[in-house]
Design goal:
Two copies of one chain form a homodimer. The first copy, chain A, is of the alpha/beta class. Chain A has twelve helices and eight strands. Chain A folds into two domains: 9-177, NAD(P)-binding Rossmann-like Domain (Rossmann fold); 181-269, 6-phosphogluconate dehydrogenase C-terminal like domain (6-phosphogluconate dehydrogenase C-terminal fold, Orthogonal Bundle), CATH 1.10.3660. A five-stranded parallel beta sheet of chain A has the order 2-1-3-4-5, sandwiched between helices. In chain A, helix 4 packs parallel to helix 5 (105-114), helix 7 (179-205) packs across helix 9 and helix 7 (179-205) packs across helix 11.
C-alpha cells in the first residue's frame, strides 16, 4: 500500500459509469490498493472483469466486501438502501461505507438504517458523462472535478479525513457540505437542468406540425445542447428526482415563475425586460469559464470534431 | 469572377458574428467576388476593416450597396426593416436583397415593405456560436451547416436559384421551406431552447439559499450546458422572441404542460412515468449523432481541452 492510500482494500458495488471509473482510478492512482467489484447484473460483472475495472469481480457480494476497508456504493440512489442491506453482518467492523449518490439526505438515511453501527461517510463526485454502463468508465473521470463529502450522524472525523484523502488521490478537489444544503445546490446545478432538458426534448419529439426529422436536422440551433444531458441514464435520474423531491420541486417552482415572467414580456412586447435579463445571464457564463468549469472555445470546441464549423443560432 | 459565383458584387450590412463570417467566407470561397461591408457602428467598421471582413468598409451605406448584385442583411431581425429602408433608391434595379434572420415571416414583410419592387430572397443559415461582434466571425462557420431559404412574394425562381448557389459555395447544405413553417421549426429547435436556457440561468443566479459561487463551482452537473446558449447576443435574441412571438408562445405552452406532467409525476412518486419519459429522449440524441449534427464523444469532447476528465452528474 502506497504511503498516501487511506484504505488497503476497496470494494466497489455497482459497476456502471461511476463505479467502473472508481475502480480504474483507484488502480491507476493507488496501485498497491486491492480493488474488488460487484454488480447485481452478471453481464455487467463479466464486462467489468474483462475491462479490469477491479482486480477481482466475484459472483457473490459477500466475497466482494468481506475484506474491505472501504465500500463505495455506486448504484442508483434508490437502490443504495437495499445494496447496503445485502452487506449487513458481512463487513469488517472497522470498514467505512461510502457512496457516490447525487442526493445525500435520503441516501445517508438509507445506508445508516441498513447498517446500524457501521461508519458511514457519504460522498458525491460531481462528475460523469451522458454515457452509462460498464463500458463507459475511465480512470481520469474525477480528475480536477469537485467531490462533495457530506458527513452525517454515522460519520467520525478520522474516517471523514480518510475518505477525503481517498478522493484527493483520485484527482478530485474535495469540499464538505451539510447534506441538505448539498441537495439544494445540486437541485439547481444538476437535477432541475436535467429535468428541463428531458422535458423540452420530449416536447419537441411529440409535435404534430414539426417532424422529428426536422427537429434532428436543425438541432444545431440550440436544441442539441439539451439532448446531451437528456441522454443520461434513465434509472439513475428517475431515482434522483424521487429522492430529492422537495428541493427539485422548490427550484422548479422558481423556474416556472421566471419563465412565466419572460413569457409575459414576450406577449406584451416588453423588449427592454427581455434584453436586461439576457444581458445578465452572460455574466454567469463568463464566471464559469474563469473558474475552469467549462471550455471557452465557441460551441465547446466540438465543431472541430464534426469536421468543420461551429453551429448554432 | 469564378465560374460558380452567382453574384459579382456582394454587400454585407451588419458586421457581427454572422455578417463577418459571410464576408470572410465569400472572400475564401469566391476570391473573384468583390465584397463591401457596412455597419451602423463606426467602431465595428474599424475592426471589420482591420480584420478584412470585406474588401472595403466605407463609412456610408450608400457607397457600400451602390454597386451590389446581392445585399445580405446581417442585422438583428427587428432592425432589418430600417436597414432595408436606408437603401431605398440606392440599389441597382436588378440587385437581389437577402438576409440571415432567424425569423422569416416578419423579416420578409419588413424588407418587402421597405423596398417595394426589389427582388427579395430571405435566407437563414442555421449556424453561429455563443460569441458575437466583429471579432467573432470565421470563414468556415457555414460549412456543413444547414441554410434554409424561404422564398416570399418578392422572390423569383431565377434569383432564388442564385441565392441557393451562393450558400452552397459557402459550404452550406440548402433547404427551402415556407416562411411560417420555418418559424415554427426554429421555435422548437432554437428559440424556445434559448428562452429556457436564459430562464434557468437567471433563476439560478437569483436564489437566496444557494450562492452564485456554488452555482458556478458545481455547474459541471449539467447547468453549464445551458449557460453556453444563455451567453448569446442579447439584442439578437430579444428581437427573435418579439418577432416570432406566436410560434414561441405556442411551443412554450406545450413545454409548460409537459413540465407540469413531469412535476406531478415527481410529486406523486410515479417512477415508471419518469423512467419511460427519460428512456424515450435518449433516442433523439442517438439520431442527432447519426445525422452528424453533434459530437458523439462524451461531454462534447470538451473535457480534453479542460485539461482532464469529462464532468457532469
Amino acid at each position: 500500500m502506497s504511503a498516501a492510500a487511506p484504505f488497503a482494500n476497496v470494494a466497489v458495488i455497482g459497476l456502471g459509469l461511476i463505479g467502473g471509473s472508481v475502480g480504474l482510478a483507484v488502480r491507476e492512482a493507488m496501485p498497491d490498493v486491492r480493488v474488488t467489484g460487484w454488480d447485481a447484473d452478471a453481464g455487467v460483472r463479466e464486462v467489468a472483469a474483462k475491462r479490469g475495472l477491479a482486480h477481482a469481480v466475484p459472483d457473490s457480494i459477500d466475497d466482494a466486501v468481506a475484506n474491505a476497508d472501504l465500500v463505495v456504493l455506486c448504484v442508483p440512489v434508490r437502490a443504495m438502501g437495499s445494496a447496503a442491506a445485502m452487506m449487513a453482518g458481512k463487513l469488517k467492523p472497522e470498514c467505512v461505507v461510502s457512496d457516490v449518490g447525487s442526493c445525500k439526505v435520503s441516501v445517508a438515511e438509507a445506508i445508516a438504517t441498513a447498517l446500524p453501527g457501521q461508519t458511514v461517510v457519504p460522498a458525491h463526485p460531481v462528475a460523469g458523462t451522458e454515457h452509462s454502463g460498464p463500458e463507459a468508465g475511465f480512470a481520469t473521470l474525477f480528475r480536477n472535478r469537485w467531490c462533495i463529502i457530506t458527513p452525517c450522524e454515522q460519520s467520525d472525523v478520522a474516517s471523514t479525513e480518510r475518505v477525503i484523502t481517498f478522493w484527493r488521490e483520485l484527482g478530485a478537489t474535495v469540499e464538505t457540505m451539510a447534506p441538505d444544503h448539498h441537495d439544494l445546490v445540486l437541485a439547481v446545478t444538476s437535477h432541475v437542468p436535467h429535468l428541463i432538458a428531458y422535458t423540452i426534448v420530449g416536447t419537441a419529439s411529440d409535435l404534430e406540425d414539426v417532424t422529428r426529422s426536422e427537429v434532428i436536422k436543425y438541432s444545431a440551433g440550440g436544441f442539441r445542447d439539451f439532448t446531451r444531458i437528456a441522454a443520461s441514464d434513465p434509472t439513475m435520474w428517475r431515482d434522483v428526482f424521487l429522492s430529492n423531491k422537495d428541493a427539485v420541486l422548490e427550484i422548479l417552482q422558481r423556474f416556472s415563475e421566471d419563465l412565466t415572467a419572460l413569457q409575459r414580456a414576450i406577449r406584451w412586447g416588453k423588449g427592454d425586460a427581455l434584453f436586461d435579463h439576457f444581458a445578465k445571464t452572460r455574466e454567469i457564463r463568463r464566471s464559469i469559464i474563469e473558474e475552469g468549469q467549462d471550455d471557452a472555445r465557441p460551441d465547446f470546441g466540438r465543431s472541430d470534431h464534426l469536421g468543420d464549423a461551429a453551429p448554432e443560432d
